Amino acid sequence: MKYASFLYDVKSMNLGDTIQTIAVEQFLPRVDKRYDRDSLGLVDDDEVHMVIMNGWFTTRPEYWPPSESILPVFFGFHINTQHIKRVPHYLLGEQSINYLKRYAPIGCRDRETARLLHERGVETYYSKCLSLTFPAREAAPDHGNVFLVDVHDIPVPELIRANAIPLTHHVPQHYPDEIKIMIAKSLLGLYKNKARLVITDKLHCALPCIAFGIPVIFFGDKNETRISILSDLGLVINSKPPSLARNTLLLLQRLSDKFECNSFIGRCSRFLHIKLMDIFLNKDVDWEPEPLSIESEKEIIINNIKSVIVEKSG
């Protein structure tokens, strides 16, 4: 049996996809190839490759379903409902549904994906995501850091923000996958070894950190099905301020960063930024959360994916 995982369009700037690939490759005996996740219908290989379909599908629904060169293992499968509203005849059309029935049961990352498919006669189950299977760290660091991951427009208390380290899961366009994997692995190692708290709005920052045993504060839309797995795990999804407030905070932060602290514009920008942060600060946020305990959940996910791979390999 040959095995493949995913690579992503060169225009993709999201390390969350890459982190999912790293999570998947933990369970493959080897990686013989990597296929573009969003062009699986174009794959034309002489040998069939097993591919774990863990992830978000798809930016190119016209290249769905995958070709006969792929043996799919559906685990952590997520259908993007925004795309479905625009092109329902693709992933929920007759051709796709027949394909999914052929390889059922379909392990879904979220309950909404499972519901959409179940309503159309596809056998499904709630597998959750392989990003939850990273090994837990042995102990928290004695003097760990707070990491602010892509929350530059989110009000965070000044006492936390002042000593925190800002990071991002965005990379420039056209980075090759090898570089993205290197950066993603470096970030995962940094979280695991150095974080005492991670504050983020990125799902695939939150899930690995939960798996590592790191306290996480997450900001997002509670009604967004893509991140509903977090609520199911017991993580609170905190609301973001209105978009106008976030844009204003971002502008003031950029002005504060651009101009010297002792300049008039720099001082005014920082003063207004701090004041608005206080105004829009979500008073309901628990800024000192405990890490979630998911080891029993993780064990179930790991046993399930190993069993499915063995079954499909046979």
Gist?
The chain has 12 helices and 13 strands. It has helices at 15-25, 81-86, 88-91, 94-102, 111-118, 158-161, 177-194, 203-212, 228-233, 243-258, 264-280, 295-313, and strands at 2-7, 33-36, 49-52, 55-57, 70-73, 77-79, 106-108, 124-126, 145-149, 165-167, 195-200, 216-219, 237-238.
Can you walk through the features of this model?
This protein has helices at residues 15-25, 81-86, 88-91, 94-102, 111-118, 158-161, 177-194, 203-212, 228-233, 243-258, 264-280, 295-313, and strands at residues 2-7, 33-36, 49-52, 55-57, 70-73, 77-79, 106-108, 124-126, 145-149, 165-167, 195-200, 216-219, 237-238. It is built from 12 helices and 13 strands. The chain has 314 residues and is an alpha/beta fold. The model has no long low-confidence stretch (mean pLDDT 91). Helix 1 (15-25) packs across helix 7 (177-194) and helix 10 (243-258) runs antiparallel to helix 11. Strands 10-9-11-12-13 form a 5-stranded parallel beta sheet. It has a 4-stranded parallel beta sheet with strand order 2-1-3-5, covered by helices on one side. It has a two-stranded parallel sheet with strand order 4-6. Strand 7 (106-108), helix 5 and strand 8 (124-126) form a beta-alpha-beta unit. The longest helix has 19 residues, at 295-313.
How would you describe this structure in keywords?
alpha/beta, single chain, five-stranded parallel beta sheet, 12 helices, 41% helix, 314 residues, 13 strands
